[in-house]
Amino acid sequence: MDATIGKQCPACGHQNSEDAEACIFCGSPLEKANREGGTSTVSLGRQAAPAEQPFVEAPDVPPPAKGIAIYIAGDIKPLAVLYDDQFVLGRASSGKEEADSGETLIDLRPFGALEMGVSRRHLLIRRAKDGYEAVDLDSVNGTYLYEERMAPGRAYKLFNGALIRMGNFRVFITFRFREE
User: Fold this and answer.
1) What's the CA gap between 107 and 17, in Å, rounded?
2) Cys-Cys crosslink for 12: which of 26, 33, 51, 54, Cβ 3.0 to 4.6 Å?
3) What kind and span of H or E run contains 90?
4) What residues form DSSP beta bridges with 135?
């Protein structure tokens, strides 16, 4: 097959036909172009299977003195330490809409988030009275807190060391509880 025709698999690099939805070589989902020329979230099926990343425990690191730290599962260095009252985990698009909205977006795209089923605006994390809470933003592949599916739009209390799975993308959250 000519390397300039079709879709290239983000996992193995194999060239596939233009209408393929999954790689014929390794079975990984392929990116789909949307009407605006960007990419749409890859649907992982009716229920996202958690087998993409190996099981790992929360990093054995102290939480930040202030704010909240986000770790990609398996890493011991935080992806980000944030002090915002709220932020969104997802994927930045090629357009400017996130930058113009004033919303803090943690872009997970460079870490394979599209291929693992993360939506553009997947999960909202915000301060609560005694810590933080998370809200699934009606994502395509769902959000799981400790491998339990979160209902979209409902706030869930987070605890230090919380495991969150968005599609098949896992992160850990660490923070100190506020002392009133």
Assistant:
1) 29
2) 26
3) strand 86-90
4) 124, 155
DSSP code per residue over 95-131: SSHHHHHT--EEE-GGGTTTTTT--TEEEEEEEETTE
Does residue 65 register a pLDDT over 60?
yes
CA atoms of 133 and 170, how far apart (whole Å): 17
Q: Is the pLDDT of residue 10 over 70?
A: no
For residue 22, give the DSSP letter: B
Residue 176 pLDDT:
84
Distance from C-alpha of 119 to C-alpha of 167, rounded to nearest angstrom: 8
Convert the pLDDT of each residue in 136-167 to its tens digit. Answer: 999 999 999 999 999 999 999 999 989 999 99
Q: Which domains does the chain have, with CATH numbers?
A: 1-30 (no CATH), 68-175 (2.60.200.20)
Short-list 17, 20, 24, 22, CA closest to 2: 17
Alpha-carbon span 117 to 98, nearest angstrom: 19
Q: What is the pLDDT of residue 40?
A: 60
* Cβ contact 124:104 at 8 Å: no
Task: Identify whether the C-beta of residue 71 lies closer than 8 Å to the C-beta of residue 89.
Answer: no
pTM over the 0.70 mark: no
